[in-house]
Amino acid sequence: MDNDIKVSNPSSRGKDIFLRDDLLDSGIKPQVYSLEDEFAKTKKNRNYLLYVCIAAFVALLIGITWFVSATIEERSKHVNISIQDFEDIKLRDLLNSAKGVEGQLMQKQQELSDLRVAMERDLSGLRDRYARKADLTRDEVTDPAQLKTALAGLDRDRSAEEDSLRGSYAARLDEKAREIDAIKKSMQTYDQKLLASAQKSEDTIDNAKKLQDLEIQKVRNYYEDRLAQKDRDHEKEIRELREFQQQLTATLILRYNPVYTSGPLKNALSNYADAQNRLVLRDFRSELTNDGILTRNSFQTFRDRLSSWQILMDRLRQTPYTNSVPLALSGVHSLTIELVSEYEALWYGLADSISKRDREIERFRYALSAYSQQHREDGFILDPRDSTNILAYVDSLYPVKPGDIALVFRGDDEYIGKVRLFPDHEMVRAETVELSNSIQPLDKLLINYLENPQSGAGR
Q1: How far apart are CA 165 and CA 381, in angstroms?
Q2: Separation between Cα atoms, residue 78 and residue 254, nearest integer Å
Q3: Distance between first and last Cα of the chain
Q4: CB-based contact 104:183 (threshold 8 Å)
Q5: How many angstroms separate the CA atoms of 119 and 162, rounded?
Q6: Domain ranges of the chain
Q7: Architecture of the domain made up of 376-447
Q8: Are 458 and 431 in contact (CB under 8 A)?
Q9: Region of residue 410 (left: phi > 0; alpha: psi -120 to 50; beta: else)
Q10: Which helix (H) or strand (E) covers residue 201, if one does?
Q11: CB of 385 closer than 8 Å to CB of 364
Q12: Burial 311-334 (b: 16+ CB within 10 A, else e)
């Protein structure tokens, strides 16, 4: 029976590995890792220098382009073309006259356009007015034949008014068109004169344009060379910044996603990182409650904490870590499941042992009950070695309350003393009140009903 209640501890190997002092490198100070804090730090460490350099380069390009354009425009304004070259052919007068005629043409074309817009506006108003009349007629006339006749009359009236309106605008439109034709003919005359004058001054203008083109090309070549050099310098800076950013990123990744190289850590990872353990949970056993080892509330609290651990571990394993961190998390997960499963087996085995013990005790209790009933005894002393915590047996026929007094006898008439009784689950504890001799195992108990008026009726 003694060997049946011994429980081995199969979790020692798992605890030795899981709780080793050298689980972390001795030269590394352990840090408390917070996923939210590290994400915030990574966001703060964003390299804004690259974006600042790109923005500065774009601004520089815009400034250089504007400067080149402004320089070319300014130089084109200062091209020296002598106005005396044009005086002998009266080019200035021709240009002024042509400009005046062109203004008249634009004015007449605008007037013609205004007339057409006015005509279309009047026609639109006319159509809207007749549309409203048609809607009113549809509301007032219900007979289909009369409605058709009325609508046809309205359509004829609308067509007649439209023709009259177009006729009233036609004369003015024709007059404007003739004026425009006359101006265009006049402009053709000026164009011919200007063409002849321009032919004479073509050589002068060509020479000036060639000089201007040479100046512009010189300026363009100068700034294009500078821009090309700026582009090369900028590309070099961008390349260096990208290399720096890659190095910084690799450093940060390695800092928060280390590679474990020490022997114990590598062994732990190799043994448990790929383990596929299944968590085995067992139902609550009432035997633990009966002996005061574990209450149902405590058992449920443990289950709730285990569920919280599972949620946290699942979330951590979903985080895209690299290097040794995913393997370490898998190892911690597997080890924890193994330990929990082993402790589940331990307490379940303990409950089996308690159940077996209770069955054995019940057999002894049955024998004591039968013996006490055969000899008409209230109970017996079982273990008197501790005078303040004596183990006793009282038959279930005689209910006991805490503090009841019982007399102790040996044999039929040898008085030993008094004890005070205290029920303890299905057993009885006692403490001495007075003694005339030492108490021995199997001394008889006689409940003193005179001192315990609230106890059972006795024999």
Answers
A1: 135
A2: 65
A3: 36
A4: yes
A5: 10
A6: 3-25+260-352, 90-200, 376-447
A7: Beta Barrel (2.40)
A8: no
A9: beta
A10: none
A11: no
A12: eebeebeeeebeebbbbbbbbbbb
pLDDT digits (tens, 9 = 90+) for 106-119: 887 888 888 888 88
Pair of tokens at residue 165: 């309106």
The residues, any chain, with a CB within 8 Å of residue 425's CB and separated by 6 or more, are: 290, 291
Structure tokens at 266: 């590598």
Tokens of 106: 């634009």
How far apart are alpha carbons 105 and 188 in whole angstroms? 12
Instruction: Convert the pLDDT of each residue in 352-401 to its tens digit.
Output: 888 888 788 778 778 777 877 777 888 888 889 988 899 998 887 888 88
- The CA distances from residue 420 to 63, 187, 393, in Å, are 106, 140, 13
- Tell how far CA 205 is from the center of its chain: 70
Taking alpha carbons only, the member of 12, 14, 184 closest to residue 105 is: 184
Q: What share of the chain is helix, strand, coil (3-state, %, to 5)?
A: 65, 10, 25
Spatial distance between the Cα atoms of 398 and 64, rounded to a whole number of angstroms: 112
